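Curious: why these numbers?
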Amino acid sequence: MDIYSRKSRWKLYFLIAGSIIVLITIIYSGYLANKLAENEKNKVILYAKAMESIYEKSLDADVQFEADILEKYNNIPVIMESEAGVFSSGDADHEHSQEYYQKRKEKFLNAGKKPVETTGYARYIYFENSRLYKLITLFPFVQMILLGAFVGFGYLGFSSSRKAEQNRVWVGMAKETAHQLGTPISAIIAWIEHLKVSGINDEQEEIVGELRNDVERLELIADRFSKIGSKPKLESFDVKSEIETAFVYMERRAPKHVKFTITDDSSAYYNGFLNQHLFAWVVENLLRNSLDSMESTGTISAYIYHDGGYINVDLSDTGKGIAASKHKTVFQPGYSTKKRGWGLGLSLAQRIIENYHNGKIFVKSSKPNEGTTFTIRLEKVLD
């Protein structure tokens, strides 16, 4: 199992754990809310009994106990209805119109609730749950919002920190690679010049020429690595011409049963802003992946076309294809389907196109055992 499969499994575990915590919170909050609602209903019943007691006692009787109960439980919103159908509030300081109380009564009854009946002045008492009850019922949702915000900001912070650290590692590795390549390349060039001065025959001259070509290739690779981490200079180049150059180079090194084709939308103008060395590196990486996926036979094609203010290049092959779930994963460092692959080619390609060329690279389409199409999008030079 690769590191990204393990990462996906850990994300699933955390999601399940978080869901369980939220579910427990909702259940427990619901339990507390129901208990509070039951307690408040009992208070309303006691409130009604206190009113009955006051109503039944004579005018000179001591009703201090009942009055204390009414005052203590006045935090629960109640509406009282007399036998004659006249409404009043349990809070004399916040009286409303009869129409207002009638609507509240209808809302209460429509909710399937039953009023508390009394034998006093208030024939029926309609009540609502207190503000505390409403806050408890809302608590799980508030908790989810706060937890989501905390996790979101934490993820963004850690993701940014990790990405910055990865960039430093990438840059350091690339610079060190370019530096390490520089010394042997210089030594090989010196030895080639020494052989030429020493005198060589025609056959050896041809060998030295091929050595020189390979050294130039190594110099190009070192130059590409040296540009990682520094902002490369972008210039106007014909994108189609650059694609053709990369195709010619790779076709010479590909199996003879692999066919290379290039088509376009018949436009004569494909100038885009790019760095030649780095762009060629991207295309070569994609072509190498295509060759690896086709097992020595198939077709690699490029379709170049305009898309608004961009030039798009669709690079397609008839290889093994990529599963839909891996379309984004393939660009992550370390992901590889090859036993000896480092999983850095597509990650480098994405960084070069998106970070240095302000473009986009993505899997446009892919089906297992049918093939894959990658799209490179670059800003075009205005006519």
